[in-house]
Kinesin-like protein (Ciccaba nigrolineata), 353 residues
Amino acid sequence: GRETRLRVVLRVRPLTCTETRRGDRQVVRSLGDGTIHVSAARHDATFGFSAVFDAGASQEAVFEGSGMRQLVELALDGFSCTVFAFGQTGSGKTYTLMGPLAQSKTQPASPALLGLMQRSFACLLEQSRNRGSDLALSASYLEIYNEQVRDLLSPGPPCTLPLRWSKTRGFYVENQLSVDFESLEAIASLLLQGSQRRRTSAHALNRHSSRSHALLTVHVRSRAVSIASPPPTRVPQPSACPSKQGTLCFVDLAGSERVKETGSSGELSVEANNINRSLLALGHCISLLAKPRGKRTHIPYRDSKLTRLLARSLGGSGITLMVACISPSSRCLSETLSTLHYASRARRVTTRP
């Protein structure tokens, strides 16, 4: 119930082979203790975050150091938890969340390369077994493509679903398919199934650019458990403990992109404009939420489908972890600074879990 700040961590990907061959300079440097320094012509700035993971950080180090394990435990306790990755296109968001793109049922990724999602699934199942509680787990997976919400788990071509509002649930997706699972293999299969149906395209900056925002939500329901009846001399107690319902939502945001840099045209250009528009709406909401509660004006969550679905995570009763991903390349300096300022504002946002 007390105010809790959004936890924001930063990940810096290595320079790519193309950037190295081109002679790009590395303009960001980790100073330790959650601090990063940007040094380039006319730019000299330092930013602080809850944690900074440089190019040499392993996937396991990011999982343990970001606080992801604690987020899983809070979801089991009935809280609404969200983690989302954001940054420029090609900055490593999908890799951080999911690991290598070239993985399938026949060619699984190396365990060392698995991302936050698979590690969280394993932690969730392990914790639920250790607690010995009667848990029911299910997952839903959707994408927001050109301002349309599409189910990634329903049979057949991804179908467009309506986004509704209710006083009790807030914004929600109507008729979204939710699939029960009990094993790591089952949830990993759902993740791969949905990811392969997500819209991606190639452009000048990224051969596998996500053209949509994707949200995978794990629903954790603890069934009511009967307890022993108290002695007659005491005040009668309820015959069952109330059930808890927690969620763990992973949001892989499409990357911001400058059409001039990516060389996008036609359909790619339309997609880029929709992506940038929704990210701008998200940034506007974050800027307003970063103000003290007494000075906040109306938060325009209705400006995009993305902000509607993230309303509870950002300014409501949820617990949120943000992973900002950046490139160290001098050529990406403008987008890197934009991401760092964006992430710094988000650190001031508070919720009441």
Notes: The chain has one domain: 4-102+112-223+244-288+298-351.
